[in-house]
Design brief:
With 97 residues, the chain is of the alpha/beta class. The chain has 4 helices and 4 strands. Strands 2-1-3-4 form a 4-stranded parallel beta sheet, sandwiched between helices. α2 packs parallel to α3. The chain is globular. The N and C termini lie far apart (55 Å). The model has no long low-confidence stretch (mean pLDDT 80).
Length: 97
């Protein structure tokens, strides 16, 4: 069974290491890249099944990488990840003690 190749675009080293370790345990071959320019170069050199982009500056990065991915003979799945910051109080928080 061959593992899928994933290109991780993440600027924060500690976060990239945690993601890489978790995805490697799931039998994914992970290649970590720090920025969009290097990711574009990597996409030209190697075939990836998935491109995972950090939520930091995600929209411009995703749009730029989408143009590159669409030109590939076997396009990769392009995903943007991040954390959702929920600022409204939850029902539990609104209850009085």
């Amino acid at each position: 069974m061959t593992s899928s190749r994933l290109l991780l675009v993440e600027q924060e080293p500690a976060r990239a290491e945690r993601i890489t370790n978790a995805l490697s345990e799931a039998n994914l071959e992970v290649f970590h890249i720090l920025d969009v320019a290097t990711a574009k170069d990597a996409l030209g050199l190697r075939q990836f099944d998935i491109v995972l982009i950090s939520d930091q500056d995600a929209k411009p990065a995703a749009m730029e990488l989408q143009r590159v991915v669409q030109k590939l003979s076997a396009p990769a799945l392009l995903l943007v990840y991040g954390c959702l910051l929920y600022t409204s109080p939850s029902p539990r928080d609104r209850q009085k003690s």
